[in-house]
Amino acid sequence: MKFFIDTANLEEIKTAMSWGCVAGVTTNPTLYARTGGKLADFENHMVHIAELCEGLPVSAESTAKTVDEMIEEGKRLAALAPNIVVKLPICAESLAATKVLKQEGVDVNMTLIFSIPQALMAASAGARYVSPFVGRFDDIAEDGVEQLAGIIEAIKTYYTPDQTEIIAASLRTPNHVAQAALLGSDIATVPYAALEKCLHHPLTDRGLEAFELDWKKVQEA
Ligand code: E4P
Questions:
Q1: Whose CA is nearest to atom 1 of ligand 1?
Q2: pLDDT by residue (tens digit) across 31-67?
Q3: What is the pLDDT of residues 87-124, one digit of tens each?
Q4: With contact defined as beta carbons under 8 Å apart, do 131 and 112 qualify?
Q5: Rounded Cα–Cα distance for residues 36 and 152 (Å)
Q6: Mapping DSSP to helix (H, G, I), strand (E, B) and coil, where does residue 141 land?
């Protein structure tokens, strides 16, 4: 399973990229707003992220409402850098736009996926990535991991990863990441704080402390 980082924060992206295990970035308007960015700077910001990622896929979300606007904005975003993927929330208009964008060679990440039919419709329209959400199910006291399992099984039944890859999204905890991996998700997109938590385990931290102490003893001997 590949790790993407789910943020628009340049420092977080730089740090996570330096770890060597991050294979892409996903952003959304909320994540961009959290950086303090203004609408007028949005495209420049996406260019900076795309440069930091050196060819790895970077999802930039369109806020267009009609099919024509989605196609126009999608083409403009994709032209910013070769590694930009256009992120569209699933709806009738975005499915139609995805079909056209795919024909134009633009990759689409279809987001806000909460059901098997939505995921299959997105893949069928030509979405390069589908993003089922986990945490938002948990927020309404439903089992997001169970929903993810169904979507992965359905997509894997009909599509290969070179057609459509699954990005497990709205992940909040290392356990969400572990479950996405066990279920066979192609990708997990993880916020910086959760990714940082994934680095740690109490036994690793204790082992590192013991290692330091042992080396101190060896040096003093
Ligand atoms: C990623 O593509 C999504 O925008 C993101 O994972 C949503 O996460 P949230 O449910 O924590 O907002």
A1: 169
A2: 999 999 999 999 999 999 999 999 999 999 999 999 9
A3: 999 999 999 999 999 999 999 999 999 999 999 999 99
A4: yes
A5: 35
A6: coil
For 2-220, which CATH class? alpha beta
pLDDT at 34: 96
Please give the structure tokens belonging to residue 183: 């279920």
Q: 23 C-alpha to center of ligand 1: Å? A: 17
Residue 158 token pair: 């009909």
Q: Determine which residue's CA is closest to atom 7 belonging to ligand 1.
A: 170
Q: How far is the CA of 133 from the centre of ligand 1 (A)?
A: 7
- The residues carrying an active-site annotation are 87
What is the C-alpha to C-alpha distance for residues 55 and 72, in angstroms, rounded to an integer?
A: 23
Residue 13 to residue 96: CA distance in whole angstroms = 32
Q: Where are the domains of the chain?
A: 2-220
Q: Whose CA is nearest to atom 12 of ligand 1?
A: 170
Give the model's pLDDT for residue 66.
98
Rounded CA-CA distance 198/175 in Å is 9
